[in-house]
Amino acid sequence: MSPAPTRLAWLDALRGPAALAVTAHHAGWSFVPAVWAVVDRRIDLGTWGVFVFFLVSGYIIPASLERRGDLRAFWTGRAFRLLPLLLTALGLAFLLGLAGLLPLDPRLGERPAPLVALGNLTMLQELLNLPPVIGVTWTLSYEMAFYLISVGLFATGQAHRSAGIAVSLAALAVPAGLLLPGASINGGADLVAALLALAVVAAIAVTVLGRGRARTAAAVAGGLLGLALVVLGSRAGTWQGVIILAAMFAGTAVHRAEQGTISWRTAGLAALAVLACGIPAKDDPGWAPALVLAFAVFGLGLALRHRAFPRVLTRLGVISFSVYLLHPLLLRPLPNLPLYYVVLIPLCLVTYHVVEAPAQRLGRRLIASRTPLPEVGTDAAGGHPPAPARASGAASGSRSRRWPPSSGDHE
Predict the structure, then answer these.
(1) What is the pLDDT of residues 172-193, one digit of tens each?
(2) Contact status, residue 104 vs residue 93, Cβ threshold 8 Å
(3) How many Cα neighbours within 13 Å face the side chain of 322?
(4) Which end of the chain is more exposed for a tag (fewer CB within 10 A), N or C?
(5) Cα 10 from Cα 173, distance rounded (Å)
(6) What is the CA radius of gyration of the chain?
(7) Are 390 and 396 in contact (CB under 8 A)?
(8) Model's pTM, two decimal places?
(9) Other CB atoms within 10 A of residue 135 CB
(10) pLDDT tens digits along 226-265
């Protein structure tokens, strides 16, 4: 066991099994499809894994925003957290594709190469009806939409409304999903996709570089764009896409309850509303059990957050982004399931230490090298008002600790 639990070690302990569940889903269908068909009919482990990730993101991203109190620092941190490994994975995918070791999406050649690159690098390809270079990056599109919406709420001082937003999105998902069963924002038009992607880039750029009202307006515009892309552009269907957003805001509501800004009852009701509206979102026998189990496991992790976790779980959580992005690249080159994991885990340890960790350190140095600009909703010195006191003395004391590197690196 780890000697002592760090403040967010429980999130790393959730990420590790979630990443393995997604790899098991794809490896099962690749190496033992007859066996996996039986498993998948009972519970879709891939769906379970990604919803655990969505709940974790919902919990940690607003915390990251509020801890920094600086939108420029937030976007800088996100860029250095995601893009270096994403670029590495995309490069490896193309190399393996050229070598005939990885089948790339045949649609990649049907759309203009600059547009495909823009969609994949902004991580919005799933919501712009653009082909992915790596299939699992569809989840990053929803992550990006959530970042945009969270930034817009933060800039306007509305971030505390997460429980109500989760319930509203869950309620919206049902009629919107019935009226808009498939993506309708794009329909394959290259110009529309390019303009939307560039609009998101412009909104982020002005949020990062602008000041005052221009920055706030850009943050709001980005948030509205993120919401519109999910409602109108979800390739899996509007119902499922909006439920994903609602689940992330349910994770945020849990963070608010832990802060003491809302009651645990309110956060719990928000989670139940998401489950009630999300269970019918997909006609797949494995979907509902996966969704319920994701919320249950997240709740279990939350209940055990002050305990120490096995080091193997927390370390696997630390490399979970590498595991998630790189595992599809090995499905074709490797001949069997045992060898697959023998290669995958060491490879991800290497990419974490060679690509991810140095990039994150560089991002932190860049953030620390400048004086934060005051944000909307901050005090005169640029800092947020202190959070409400925690009920427990031990829990309250954890607030004064330095953000633990193992978890903070994975915001």
Answers:
(1) 999 999 988 776 676 668 999 9
(2) yes
(3) 23
(4) N
(5) 30
(6) 20
(7) yes
(8) 0.89
(9) 13
(10) 999 999 999 889 999 999 999 999 999 999 999 999 999 9
